Amino acid sequence: MRVVPPLTAVTAALLLVTATGATPAAADLDPAPDAAPLTRVSHGDPYARCTVGARSPDSVVHPGTEVEPYLSVDPNDPRRVVTVYQQDRWNDGAARGLVASWTTDGRTFHRSTLPFSLCAPGGADYERASDPWVSTGPDGTVYASGEGVDFTRSTRSALLTATSRDGGRTWHHLTTTHVDEQPFFNDKPSLTADPVRKGTAYQVWNRLDNDPPGPGSLDGPGYISLTRDGGRTWSPARPFVDTAAVPNTQTIGHVIVVDPRTGTLYDFFDRITYSDDLSTVTEAHYQMVTSTDAGRTWSAPTTVARDTSVPEVHPNDPTKQLRAASTLPSPAVDPRTGTLYTAYEGSDFSGGDFDAVQLVRSTDGGRTWGSPELISPQGVPAFSPSIAVDERGTVALTYYDLRFLEPGDTTTLPTAYQLALLPHGEPGRRTERRISRVFDWLQAPFAGGYFLGDYQGLAADGRGVRAVLTETRSDAPHNRTDVYTAPLSTR
């Protein structure tokens, strides 16, 4: 979700926006990427007949759309991969449900439904679902999480988890880790399986309070729930990053990474402070907190970098809003050295004109951080960075960029997904290659902007990295987006 000053717990937090008109279709511009072909993982629509979730006549569902994918690779077998994504996105928030696609050979993917909404067989009692996430533990247990949201019956928002012990084929132990009604709204959950503690996983998110006591009208601390028995039970949710000291402050984008050498946990997030009337952002920084006791206690926040992101728009027509990963950090840790990295959208290298992909690093456990480095090409808007570090210390980053956009073109938005490699994290040794077709972003569903997802996924797989991403299709009006994956060499 993109951050906006929350007005009500559901409507603002889910970015209630109605599409203003259709965009002319454009042909797919280039079917031949530089890398090996991608594998399509989204086939069919298990929720096509579901009628749950319409808020009003202005609510528009986009059947056949798959967006906002994430993925996990079994640390014991890189051929065992699970991807998750939103299925059938609504224009005014969330989707009909969440779906998983799994493989045991790394090539052929099979579909299973995640039980996080009423559209899914045996699903949780929520009208829509959003924010899919997945992570695999050292014993092969796969943990999935998401958010369940009601629109017509209540103002509930809930954090949900489920586990799979057969590689994503079936899901069990559906758990509501936390639920609220207005004035609270729970947002942007992520889930991390501990790579060194079997049966342990952490779910983190921000909990917006739109009517806090005392000064200010917004509070958004970070919350955590964890399991130590393989997802059978989860601890009561509790705050672990406080925002009460500064009125009108929230966090967003919490993601935990774990140093496999030491077991230290690092949670990264964006801390944002608004003006008294919530109309403008007065301060925003990416920050990090640390736990050395498996999530029981946490340090005070350390600042990682300033959030300099600006509105995501079509460069030739700023009235066309885009929606990508602004305000959401993508962190990683080098498994050999413990070096920490954070990738994010920022405008430091464009003079505040547009976002590009920036990277910062810490070699002392997050106590100090270097200056931002530009990763995407100079002068080209770029979005939605994802980061992973392979076993040799090569840093991989994936992102969308707009280098193929011609001056004056306002009816299409040619977009491609790129892979950048930095041996040992050194920007001076950077190489890049394209891994997607060139496709028209404006064919994506409109949901607070033309929406491919608030994030995409990238994971080390023991041999390199594996990416998952969304592409649009101009030749299929009833199947406007699909999700694709590929293993990518880092050599």
TrEMBL record:
One GO MF term on file is: hydrolase activity
Reactions performed catalytically: Hydrolysis of alpha-(2->3)-, alpha-(2->6)-, alpha-(2->8)- glycosidic linkages of terminal sialic acid residues in oligosaccharides, glycoproteins, glycolipids, colominic acid and synthetic substrates
User: Matching Gene3D superfamilies, A to Z?
Assistant: 2.120.10.10
User: Which superkingdom does the taxonomy of this entry point to?
Assistant: Bacteria
Q: EC number(s) on record?
A: 3.2.1.18
Q: Which UniProt keywords apply?
A: Hydrolase, Plasmid, Signal
Q: Where is the Sialidase domain?
A: 224-395
Q: Which CDD domains match?
A: Sialidase_non-viral
Q: Where is the signal peptide?
A: 1-27
Task: Cite the InterPro entries for this sequence.
Answer: Sialidase (IPR011040), Sialidase_fam (IPR026856), Sialidase_sf (IPR036278)
Describe the family membership recorded for this protein in Swiss-Prot or TrEMBL.
Belongs to the glycosyl hydrolase 33 family.
Q: What is the official name of this protein in its record?
A: exo-alpha-sialidase
